[in-house]
Amino acid sequence: MEMLQQSSSTLKVIPYVKVFARVAPEQKELIITSFKSVGRVTLIGVFTAAFFLFISHASPLPTLSAERPHPTIFCSYVLLSLLGQFTVHVFFLVSSVKAAEKYMPEECIEPDSEFHPNLVNTVSYMVGMMLQVATFAVKYMGHPFNQSISQNRPFQYALVGAVGFFTVITSDLFRDLNDWLKLVPLPKELRNKLMLWSFLAFLVCYSWERFLRWAFPGKMPAWKKKQRTVTTNAEKKRV
């Protein structure tokens, strides 16, 4: 029984992991130039691996829910969730890069030239990391199937740690850390915009996700509906 519960919990997570996997490549294509620092790549990889690990260890609730998860990723909920989140993420990324470009002089960068930190690749890295964290936080499926984020303590601590790290590098609290990551200091106005836009992007994605879960609940399979009808009729005959 325990094995079935764990398998059921894992299967409920898989569709949302796949959604993340489909959103992530588009983001990485836009910010690929920001990942030429070994430190940057290492930290992104550590956080991503930790998120996947702790999501997969989410325990199912001891009682069955009347609600049902979506049986396939090919449904209106997943499609609209993917498109909505992708739109918000790309808009946030493009807006942030354009805001950073205003503080940079015009320069011609050769495709095979050595990596030099600047405002654009610094902002791209920060935005890319924030989008990674927001994606996992928004797409996490807790109640009524699995533990909530507050109950899944390792995942909660990983999220808090990632948000704290994002805040530290954005606010430039530890210059040595940013130098190791090859992140240049952000102008105060740009830093405030980035923090505000990050919060708004997360809020919009979270609200959109909750609306879609309410508007497109998982449907009960047809054979279960027939089974319930037969059971109800049989009970009526007994009475």
TrEMBL record:
SUPFAM superfamilies: Calcium ATPase, transmembrane domain M (SSF81665). The chain crosses the membrane at residues 41-61, 73-94, 154-174, 194-216. It is found in: Membrane. One of its GO terms (cellular component) is membrane. Its main location: membrane. It is a multi-pass membrane protein. This is Manganese-transporting ATPase pdr2, variant 2. GO terms for molecular function: ATP binding; metal ion binding. Keywords: ATP-binding, Magnesium, Membrane, Metal-binding, Nucleotide-binding, Translocase, Transmembrane, Transmembrane helix. The keyword ATP-binding applies. Signal peptide: none annotated.
